[in-house]
Each structure stands twice: as structure tokens, then as C-alpha cells.
């Protein structure tokens, strides 16, 4: 699948917190980039002679904002997040890959619904896009946001959230949870846990049989919320999660201690060509291919966008993340090569 890339000029850089910025881009002169509320773009930056990719959700709304914007929180040791926070200025051009992602909401003016959003830290980014879009386009719908942070000063979009809550006071309810509050904090203290999430959902008159739930944040937080939803037998189709913090190999130290993974030969069939190459235990199939300058389709490299999807027709693979695929796709043998490792010899992957 060929993905479209753009070179977008930076329109504005806004400091949201001491370690987080929002970067707004001008649309290309020739077209308006289309995206859905909650989706992400992949940013490609040159670092040490290499092009490094990272995916960031858009905090802007296609229904309320003229510019396209991403919000980037600095990650300790993060190559791209530090580059974007420290070096990007108004007028610069950045290479991006077209918007992608299955974590989104499509507003419908005829709908009357209740969306319950759970976010922690920078997980608020896609939620802002969803909140602005739904409140603007669905006058009969309402939203509950449960938002966790370490301190009051680390709340991204604090003023913007307050403005939205005031403007849509009958339809937007926000619950802040702070884990390390100051002496002046009078709100909820702690983290988003199973018990706290259930209490806030009940206080918001949640209908567990029909409301939809959107989660973005650390894996532990999302698992706790899902445990609470499971108590009320919420159908899986009502639960939507974004794996915001998928690890990247150049930002973490990888130990080759997993005895189940061994160096294997893999064959990839793509666009009529066959490529056979070695995949080491610390590599994904995609990483091994890119190291050999094999031009396979990809975008986010985090198991979110499905641009690198292929079908495993022989052998077995292990995936670090499966959230980007449906249960049906997994059952049919589809994999995401950016997070897939060969478990057996003779793995064959076919890609469109």
C-alpha cells in the first residue's frame, strides 16, 4: 500500500507544558489534508544521517480547526520527541506521512450518544480532537472525560479543556485525577484505577449497554479500566483503545534474552518480487528488511496504522502488539510486520 507523504510548513509552535508542545502545520497549497478525529500522522525527521519515524495523534479537529496540529510530549532519551520540542521553529518544513489509524470517531449530527473518554498524560491528544469534533457536530451528544496526570502543572490543554467545559457545560464533564498533587489541589488524588473509573462512570450516568468507551494512555491504566468495564459485561465493540506508548527500538535497550526467538530466514512476497532475508531475535520482520534496504510499505512502526500488514501463509510469527488488527484478521493469518518476529523456520509473508 503506497502511502502519500507531504512536506508541511510549520505555522505555529505552542508550548503547552514545560515538556510538551503543539506544532501546527499549514495545509499544502494544492489540497486540504483530510483526517478523522482521533487519527495520527507519522513524522519523519533526519537524525544522525538517518530518517527516523514517529507517529503522533492530531490534537486538532477536522471540524473546528483550520490548521493541522500534533501535540508532542518530551520522552526521556526520545530521539524524535526531543527533536520536535527543541529544534522545530515556525517556517520549518517537516516530512509527514498521510493520516492513518483505526482509533477515531466520525461525528453524525443525527446521533444522540454518550462517549466516555479515559486519558493519561499525552494520551489526551487524540481525545481533544474527538471532544471538539463531537461537541461541535453532534448537538444532542455528551462526553465524559476522565483525565489523569502527575501534577497540576503537567495537565496538557488545561486552559483549553476549561474553556470547552464552560462552553459546553451541559454536555462535557471533566474529572481530573492527580497522582502527585500540590497542597492546593482539591480534586481527586491517585491514578485512574478500576475502582475510580467505575465510580466516575456511575456518577456520569453511564449506560454500560450502549455507551462507547475510548482509552489512551499507559497499558496498565487501560487494562484497569477494561477490568471495570468487564464487570458490567460491556461488549468489546464498545471499547476502543489506542496503544500510545508502543516501545521503539532506538529509544529502549533491547536484550536478546527471549529464548523463544531465534535467528530465522523469512521470505516476503511484495509487489511481484520475492525477498528472502535473515531476521535476528531483536528485530522485527520490517526492521530486518529496512536494514537491507528492502523497500516494504510501512508508516508508524508501532503496530498502529496497519500500513505494513501482510498475511503469514507459512510458519508462525509472534507479534508484540495486536491492537491494530481485528480478531477476524488475526484468525485469517494477517500480521503487522513492524511488530512481528518469526517463531519458526520457513515463515512466508505475502504483502499487497
UniProtKB/TrEMBL annotation:
Transmembrane segments: none annotated. Its cofactor is FAD. This is Ferredoxin--NADP reductase. One of its GO terms (molecular function) is 2 iron, 2 sulfur cluster binding. It comes from the Bacteria. Coiled coil: none annotated. The keyword Manganese does not apply. Gene3D superfamilies: 3.10.20.30, Nucleotide-binding domain of ferredoxin-NADP reductase (FNR) module, Translation factors. Keywords: 2Fe-2S, FAD, Flavoprotein, Iron, Iron-sulfur, Metal-binding, Oxidoreductase. It holds the Pfam family NAD_binding_1. It comes from Emticicia agri. Residues 264-352 form the 2Fe-2S ferredoxin-type domain. Residues 3-106 form the FAD-binding FR-type domain.
Amino acid at each position: 500500500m503506497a502511502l502519500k507523504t507531504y512536506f508541511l510548513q510549520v505555522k505555529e509552535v505552542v508550548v503547552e507544558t514545560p515538556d510538551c508542545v503543539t506544532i501546527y502545520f499549514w495545509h499544502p497549497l494544492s489540497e486540504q489534508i483530510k483526517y478523522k478525529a482521533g487519527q495520527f500522522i507519522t513524522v519523519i525527521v533526519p537524525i544522525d544521517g538517518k530518517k527516523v519515524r514517529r507517529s503522533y495523534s492530531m490534537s486538532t479537529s477536522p471540524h473546528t480547526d483550520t490548521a493541522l496540529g500534533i501535540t508532542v510530549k518530551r520522552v526521556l532519551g526520545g530521539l524524535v520527541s526531543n527533536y520536535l520540542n527543541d529544534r522545530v521553529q515556525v517556517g520549518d518544513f517537516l516530512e509527514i506521512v498521510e493520516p492513518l489509524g483505526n482509533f477515531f470517531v466520525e461525528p453524525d449530527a443525527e446521533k444522540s450518544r454518550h462517549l466516555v473518554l479515559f486519558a493519561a498524560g499525552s494520551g489526551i491528544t487524540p481525545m481533544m480532537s474527538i471532544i471538539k469534533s463531537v461537541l461541535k457536530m453532534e448537538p444532542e451528544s455528551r462526553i465524559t472525560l476522565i483525565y489523569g496526570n502527575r501534577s497540576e502543572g503537567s495537565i496538557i490543554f488545561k486552559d483549553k479543556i476549561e474553556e470547552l467545559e464552560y462552553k459546553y457545560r451541559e454536555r462535557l464533564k471533566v474529572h481530573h485525577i492527580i497522582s502527585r498533587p500540590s497542597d492546593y489541589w482539591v480534586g481527586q488524588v491517585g491514578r485512574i484505577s478500576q475502582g475510580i473509573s467505575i465510580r466516575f462512570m456511575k456518577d456520569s450516568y453511564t449506560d454500560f449497554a450502549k455507551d462507547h468507551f475510548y482509552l489512551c494512555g499507559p497499558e496498565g491504566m487501560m487494562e484497569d479500566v477494561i477490568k471495570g468495564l468487564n464487570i458490567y459485561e460491556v461488549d468489546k465493540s464498545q471499547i476502543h483503545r489506542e496503544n500510545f506508548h508502543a516501545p521503539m527500538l532506538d529509544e529502549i535497550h533491547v536484550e536478546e534474552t527471549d529464548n523463544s526467538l531465534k535467528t530465522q530466514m523469512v521470505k516476503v512476497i511484495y509487489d511481484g518480487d520475492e525477498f528472502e532475508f535473515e531476521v535476528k531475535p531483536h528485530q522485527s520482520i520490517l526492521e530486518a528488511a529496512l536494514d537491507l534496504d528492502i523497500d516494504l510499505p510501512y508508516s508508524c512502526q508501532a503496530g498502529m496504522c496497519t500500513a505494513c500488514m501482510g498475511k503469514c501463509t507459512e510458519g508462525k510469527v509472534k507479534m508484540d502488539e495486536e491492537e491494530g488488527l481485528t480478531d477476524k484478521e488475526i484468525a485469517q493469518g494477517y500480521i503487522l510486520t513492524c511488530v512481528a518476529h518469526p517463531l519458526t523456520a520457513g515463515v512466508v509473508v505475502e504483502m499487497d
